[in-house]
Amino acid sequence: MKSFTYTIQDELGIHARPAGVLVKEVKKFESKITIEGNGKKADAGKLLAVMGMGIKKGTEITVSAEGADEDTAIAEVEKFFKENL
Amino acid sequence: MERYAGKSILKGTAIGKVLFYSKEEQVVQRRSVEDIQAELERFEKAKNEAVVQLNALYEKALKEVGEVNAAIFEVHAMMVEDGDFNDSIKNVIESQAVNAEYAVAVTGDNFAKMFAEMDDDYFKARSADIKDIAERIVRILHGGHSGGDLGEEPVILAAKDLAPSETVQMDKTKLLGFVTELGSSNSHTAILARTMNIPALIGIHVSEDMDGKMAIIDGVSGELILDPDEDVLKQYRQRQEEEKRSRELLQQLKGKPAVTLDGKEIKLFANIGSVGDMAKVLANDAGGIGLFRSEFLYLEKDDYPTEEEQFQAYKTVAETMAGKKVVIRTLDIGADKQVDYFKMDKEDNPAMGYRAIRICLDRPEIFRTQLRAIMRASAYGNIAIMYPMIISVDEVLQIKKIVASIKADFDEKGIPYGDFEQGIMIETPAAVMISDLLAKEVDFFSLGTNDLTQYTLAIDRQNSKLDNIYDAHHPAILRMIQMVIDNGHKENCWVGICGELGADLTMTEKFLRMGIDELSVSPAAVLPVKKIIRETDLKSE
């Protein structure tokens, strides 16, 4: 399993639009990708679950990937967070 | 005549008949079904249809309101296809052996409730999105079609609430404005109203009685006026005309360069007094900021603003202008602008007293703090520094010495700064008369015509008895302006006007013919001036 932690910089937190893009991004990989933060945990491939976490600006989250392509997956997802959130 | 107070989403006026819009309440009944498989298929089909509709809405919105605002429908489509949402619906159908409509409605309510209970306003508002998609699927299952038919005559729409999909579906040529009871200024509907430039109010109690009545939306005060009197109606019609004219000007000129018919590009900039004015600068499409009065940083506080505080303010403006020129004028207090903590003596004649650059050179610690802040901010955009109230070459040399010592310090410490131009205000007759010499020392001149007029004509600006002889178009002033332009150009300085005269539309063409390079005016004057610039041909007399 691979993981990284990241603090959300976006003013609105993980809001609808980036959450939607994230879900698309995550679906490219075989690995199961999970987000933890705000005392909650969600499958990063599920839009409503991710939005339902209510992650706001300044919240520290941990993203982990588990599966055959976990190395590439975690690198790409981390890049996504840094660029968009 | 009745007035209702609400909250304005867009500053604009709308006048027209009210159409009371109520969603056909979709009564969802719980029915038992025998063929669960068939029900699951009904849901799948409806879901697919919903995605098709949402994609079509996305395309429509993309054309009408742009990518950023259209994105919500893409997100809606993804919500429809969300795994948890679908699992829940299928689970309800299977475990309870009930109809798809009921399963969708129950699931929609549950998810909407989850968002409504979140403590953040943004996420709370998302419950409306969930309701919107659930209603769409139910509507498809019912075989009904979606709303949005406004009739023939343009109307002001009154509704309890409007979903973003309803707003986008409406025919914009039939929609004068809308009024809703619910919704927040953060809602997508509000955002769409702003993008589509439709006057809108929220927080107004709407009722069916309003239907068919004449109404006015006052987007400035946030009021809805029902059954207005003739006089009131006339007054608002006039206001609407004015709005229309300025909007037309904007549409006609926004994004177009400030260039004369024969191809001379003029720097058409805006004057601002605080960071808060930036929105107006952008809305009026100014090509840069020609005068950023830094005094506000000092006037707003009861002690000297720190280097860091100033740096943040300058950096914000430089970054917001994204590479466009930002001319920051160093502290210009004294005269009519007094700050207590500077502890200045009372003067008999402050306009000719201890002010502006005179204070800065006398108390260099204050000046250095400001210069350091501006120079640091210059790493983040296209900043220029302008010094006020100059009367001698020696003052400019002293300033340049201070700037050079700060640069040396920055270089040593590795603090970044950008390439910044340095220029001076020409607002004293002395500066005009030696402008040939000053031009060798600086990159630009900016004529402060208000002070220049008062000093040249020996007329106190504060004395209203002299208003009748105060003549901003006095030949002495015009000759001075010509002299400054010519002397500046000989040394490759650009020359501008940042005083009130710069926005005098009767003078714009004359200044252009005199060779002016820059006009910096209040944000609201930018487009009217741009219009004249674009209509002037300097080659023809």
- Order of strands, main sheet of chain A, comes to 1-4-2-3
CATH architecture of chain A: 2-Layer Sandwich
At the first level of CATH, what is the class of the largest domain in chain B? Alpha Beta
Per DSSP E runs of 2 or more residues, the count of β-strands of chain B stands at 16
Helix tally of chain A equals: 3
The CATH topology of the largest domain in chain B is TIM Barrel
Oligomer status: heterodimer
Number of domains of chain B: 3
Structural class of chain B: alpha/beta
Q: Structural class per helix/strand content of chain A? A: alpha+beta
Helix content of chain A: 25-40%
Biggest β-sheet strands, sense, barrel of chain B? 8 strands, mixed
Which spans of chain B of ≥5 residues are poorly predicted at pLDDT below 50?
none
Strand order of the largest sheet of chain B: 1-8-7-3-4-5-6-2
- Rg of chain A, rounded, reads 11 Å
What share of residues are in beta strands of chain B? 5-15%
- Series of secondary-structure elements of chain A, N-terminal to C-terminal: EHEEHEH
**Structure annotation, total helices of chain B:** 21
Q: Looking at the structure, what is the overall shape of chain B? A: elongated
